[in-house]
Amino acid sequence: MIKTPPGGGSEVLPTTGKMTKETTKGRCREMNKITKLFGLGLCALGLSVFAQSASADAMKDIIKRGELRVAVQTQGPPVSYVDTKGNRTGFAVELVAMMAKDMGVKLKLLDYDWKGLIPAVTSGKADFLAADMTPKPKRALVLIFTEPYMYSRNVIYSKKSKSYMKWQDACVKGVSVAVVQGSSNVGVLKAKCPNATIKEFAGGGPAVAQAVAADRADAGINDEASAKGYMIEYPEFKILDGAPDRGPLSFATRPEETHLVRWMDNYLMVIKADGRMDKLLNYWMFGTDWKKDRTPVPKKK
Description:
By secondary structure, this protein is α/β, with parallel strands linked by helices. Helices cover 42% and strands 22% of the residues.
């Protein structure tokens, strides 16, 4: 303790032994608490890092279990659908079957409506989703997408009896346009056809085509490959000139699965180089032979 005497200067006064002992004990207790908390913090951090490193590699899990689990759309021809013989087929189905074979594992396909694809992946039920999905910025907040396997136009179609010629003709007040519920085309219509009435339908592209055929909607929007297929199934349909949107199509998995998405990117690069991708795209996405060879389940009347 320091005391200033009357004459100036300073004088150090001794502290009692009792105060020194109590102060020392208090400080020790505080130091022990801090040390314990710091140690617990380091322990928790270590466990967190360990848990992440142990669970953040789906590729190891796939190889270990000997099975690749892929979420696909229940009825979304020509990407994924069930034909009249009850066989699951389509562009994405054949592509992931090739992936599984080259991985040396079995393939397990998990059927979901369009809205269920992303939750199936984020919940861990599926290793990734294989669909004609556009890697929109909002989706990329919860998913990591592969490099595009192709670029596709989204087109609007209607019955031939309608007077529409260009896609813009169907985007006016009083016209209703059918769209797959929860798809990126909902956003396309809101941006490009704000005056039209938007009608969302669950059940994928076939449900949209059925709505147009049954006059529950004046027009429908879908990717060009699917729309071309509907032109065969519904001879009364026509595709309107032009396209309101064009975008990339990709597969997707969870953001932390960088090993898996890099493997898929590498695989897409390899099959593009050896010609297998062109063969798949020409048959399923750019042509209509699949419609004759592997007919989807009959449309509902």
